[in-house]
Amino acid sequence: MLEPNTPVAPHPDIAHLAPLLGTWRGSGSGEYPTIDSFDYLEEVHFGHVGRPFLTYRQRTRSADGSRPMHAETGYLRAIGGDRVELILAHPTGITEICEGKLVTENDGLRIELDSTSIGRSSTAKSVTALGRTFELAGNTLGYTLRMAAVEQPLQHHLAATLHREN
């Protein structure tokens, strides 16, 4: 779904998610028992098309910027009150549906999500659960990602701090 060329007011059902709109850039680090720890650069974009959801696009590159690492694309949906859903597709053959709670704070918000469904192609690695936390304070967006994969229990995998691009 393409974003309109001219600005569109956010749908009233996602007004409380509007502080996320825009492009965010920064860096993060990852670890997991089955891989070497690593650092990366990241860009996240939240957009909208005037409907009751935000579009979501994420891209990472190696810390030196020399090679692409990961990408995700999907939608963040407000499903009533303080509940949200994040629906994502990964190019590694994984699809992810997470549901959770949105807490609006003084100058930002916090979203706590846990997977309710993980889809896998026949060639995708075994991922059995994911959890995400997004924290927005002013022009800083931080997140953590927890993952259960390749016979490992749910545990910390990624953390990043991103800043709003002007």
Short structural description:
The chain is mainly β and 166 residues long.
Describe the fold and architecture.
By secondary structure, the protein is mainly beta. It has a single domain, classed as Beta Barrel (Lipocalin), CATH 2.40.128.20. Helices cover 0% and strands 65% of the residues. Strands 1-2-3-4-5-6-7-8-9-10 form a ten-stranded antiparallel barrel. Strand 2 and strand 3 form a beta hairpin. It is globular. The model has no long low-confidence stretch (mean pLDDT 94).
List keywords for this structure.
metal-binding; isomerase; mainly beta; Lipocalin; heme binding; ten-stranded antiparallel β-barrel; 166 residues; EC 5.99.-.-; metal ion binding
Strand content: over 45%
Report the CATH architecture. Beta Barrel
Strand order of the largest sheet: 1-2-3-4-5-6-7-8-9-10
The parts where pLDDT drops under 50 for at least 5 residues are: none
Structural class: mainly beta
Please report the total strand number as a whole number: 10
Structurally, how many domains make up the residues? Answer: 1
The radius of gyration is 16 Å
- Sequence of secondary-structure elements: EEEEEEEEEE
Number of H/I helices: 0
Helix content: under 10%
* Main sheet: strands, sense, barrel: 10 strands, antiparallel, barrel
The CATH class name reads Mainly Beta
CATH topology: Lipocalin
Choose one word for the global shape: globular
- State the end-to-end CA separation: 23 Å
